[in-house]
């Protein structure tokens, strides 16, 4: 749990952006956020400055802030960068990563995705999907690339929520594809895992483009 008022404000606004509650182009004010979470405007201002530095908000003096939309060009760049990082990570896994431990972790996440689908919780589904892919990259053991990847995913998750709302059946497809990735990991099938992950990324990218 966030400890300070500024951290609470930061977590509140960022969560709303990532789960789609605050879509791109939405305007918000310090007063609105302060009232929602019961703090003064000063920590909200600090949180907004932090989110502006992360590229999620654009501040307008004396007016408030706007949620920065993910442009078509940025979406393409994010998708391409993600694909490169995940492909590298997938290959690296089979060099020295603890595959069975990772497979167990990913299997649990797939079960959580099923639960989110059953509950119709699109925001949680997208968050779990993000954790699944981050876990693959993190297991490759490069902390710098993991941080870069996390920032990319936070931009794309804003798009992912809209895709799931447009096409709920995509949730079922995603679960099946993630399940297959776990199976290939358990089998130690490096080429199969990399190939399936590449195709999974390509399919997800196609849905994102279609949604835009």
Written account of the structure:
It holds the Pfam family GntR. Helix 4 crosses helix 7. The two termini are 34 Å apart. The protein is elongated. It has 212 residues and is mainly α. The protein has a three-stranded antiparallel beta sheet with strand order 1-3-2. 77% of the residues lie in helices and 5% in strands. The chain has nine helices and three strands. It has two domains: 5-67, Arc Repressor Mutant, subunit A (Orthogonal Bundle); 72-211, GntR ligand-binding domain-like (Four Helix Bundle (Hemerythrin (Met), subunit A)).
Compact overview of the structure:
With 212 residues, the chain is mainly α. It has helices at residues 5-18, 30-37, 41-53, 72-96, 99-119, 122-139, 143-166, 169-186, 190-211, and strands at residues 27-28, 57-60, 64-67. InterPro entries: GntR_C, TF_FadR/GntR_C, Tscrpt_reg_HTH_GntR, WH-like_DNA-bd_sf, WH_DNA-bd_sf.
Labels describing this entry:
single chain; 212 residues; mainly alpha; Four Helix Bundle (Hemerythrin (Met), subunit A); 77% helix; elongated; Tscrpt_reg_HTH_GntR; transcription; TF_FadR/GntR_C
């Amino acid at each position: 749990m966030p400890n300070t008022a500024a951290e609470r404000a930061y977590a509140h606004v960022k969560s709303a952006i990532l789960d789609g509650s605050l879509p791109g182009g939405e305007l918000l004010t310090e007063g609105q956020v302060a009232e929602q979470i019961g703090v003064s405007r000063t920590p909200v201002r600090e949180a907004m400055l932090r989110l502006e530095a992360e590229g999620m908000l654009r501040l307008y003096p004396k007016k408030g802030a706007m949620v920065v939309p993910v442009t078509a060009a940025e979406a393409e760049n994010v998708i391409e960068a993600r694909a490169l990082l995940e492909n590298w990570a997938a290959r690296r896994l089979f060099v020295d990563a603890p595959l069975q431990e990772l497979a167990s972790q990913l299997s649990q996440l797939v079960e959580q995705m099923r639960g989110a689908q059953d509950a119709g919780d699109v925001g949680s589904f997208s968050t779990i999907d993000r954790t699944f892919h981050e876990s693959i990259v993190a297991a490759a053991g490069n902390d710098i690339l993991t941080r870069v990847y996390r920032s990319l995913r936070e931009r794309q998750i804003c798009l992912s929520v809209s895709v799931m709302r447009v096409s709920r059946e995509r949730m079922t497809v995603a679960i099946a594809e993630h399940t297959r990735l776990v199976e290939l990991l358990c089998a130690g099938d490096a080429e199969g895992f990399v190939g399936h992950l590449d195709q999974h990324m390509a399919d997800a990218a196609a849905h994102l483009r279609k949604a835009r």
